[in-house]
Amino acid sequence: MNRWQRPPPDPEVQLLKGELAASEWTFSESGYRSFIFLSGSGSVRSGDGEVPFAAPCLIWLQARRGGSLRANAGSRGVSLSVSEISFARAVGMGPNARAIREALSRPLLVVKLESKQARRLADSVEGILEEGMQDWPGMDDAVRHRLALLLIGAWRLSGPVMREAQPLPRTIMHRFLHAVELHMREHWTIARYAQEVGITAECLNATVRRVTGRSPLAIVHARLTQEAISLLDSSNLPIADIAETLGFHDPAYFSRFFKRQTGRSPNKHRQNSALRSHSGHSFAAWP
């Protein structure tokens, strides 16, 4: 099996070449898994039981801990593993984004395909693999756009999306976190996030507090702080550039925000991080 994997949040592609023995995947991480089988058969096991499948078919599922997929000997196709962040970036915020997220956020989707449909989807996944293997200029953008085309194709094949009159708390959180990942640098209001999720601001606030114990604004601020810490620790960018990257037009305001969240200024955090890194180097191991 050929495999390409770049550091998260980029996707992982695996070619399934018809092994002589059965193959099995056990899911232990969050994110999504997709299998396009051109030939063969098998079954998917989850908390809801076991679902058999036969090629040609598309399988799309949330990679929840405890789930697994077994492909019988001789099964051929492709597999794609997608992180939550990569999924969110590929879906984007276009007119069909919400419908795509709803369709592909189901626990399990098994769609019987015609051979041509399966081949077309498999070619889309193999295109992602080819981009990663060649390391061409613009590869990241090409991978994201190829993944977006694949998601649209899977959505079209999934059938009509049934909208929930009253979204479940898990669905609300899922949509909210996707929106935060995409738009935290734009500093949306909570009302704007609620509009994107499809509920009122009051409902969003109540749901997020019930699920996490924190307000929606606290979730957004925590995610911005996490990004700020990552940039401070892993780059030499000036504080003003980091502020601009994160959507703060005033570096002084960014510094006040960061200190309010962490108890120290960005400069102080960077100094402490440099000292920790320096103290981690020891001459004791030298020959």
Describe this structure as you would to a colleague.
- The protein has eleven helices and ten strands.
- The chain is of the alpha+beta class.
- The chain has three domains: 3-157, Regulatory protein AraC (Jelly Rolls, Sandwich), CATH 2.60.120.280; 164-213; 217-278, Arc Repressor Mutant, subunit A (Orthogonal Bundle), CATH 1.10.10.
- The strands form two sheets. The protein has a six-stranded antiparallel beta sheet. It has a four-stranded antiparallel beta sheet with strand order 3-8-5-6, with no helix packed on it.
- A hairpin with a 2-residue loop joins strand 5 (41-46) and strand 6 (49-54).
- The longest helix is centred in the middle third of the chain and has 20 residues, at 115-134.
- The two termini are 43 Å apart.
- The model is unreliable at 4-9, 161-165 and 281-287 (pLDDT under 50).
Shape: globular
Q: Got a strand count?
A: 10
Main pleated-sheet profile: 6 strands, antiparallel
Question: Strand-residue fraction?
Answer: 15-25%
Question: Looking at CATH, which topology of the largest domain would you report?
Answer: Jelly Rolls
Instruction: Please report the distance between the alpha carbons of the first and last residues.
Output: 43 Å
Provide the CATH architecture of the largest domain: Sandwich
Order of helices and strands: EEEEEEEEEHHEHHHHHHHHH
**Total number of distinct structural domains:** 3
Number of helices: 11
* Cα gyration radius (Å): 22 Å
Uncertain residue ranges: 4-9, 161-165, 281-287
Mean pLDDT: 85
| Overall helicity | 40-55%
Helix and strand content put the structural class at: alpha+beta
Main sheet strand line-up: 1-2-9-4-7-10
The fourth-level CATH homologous superfamily of the largest domain is: Regulatory protein AraC
Q: According to CATH, what is the class of the largest domain?
A: Mainly Beta
InterPro entries: Homeodomain-like_sf, HTH_AraC, Tscrpt_reg_AraC-type_HTH
Pfam family, one: HTH_18
Protein name: Transcriptional regulator, AraC family
Region (Disordered): 260-287
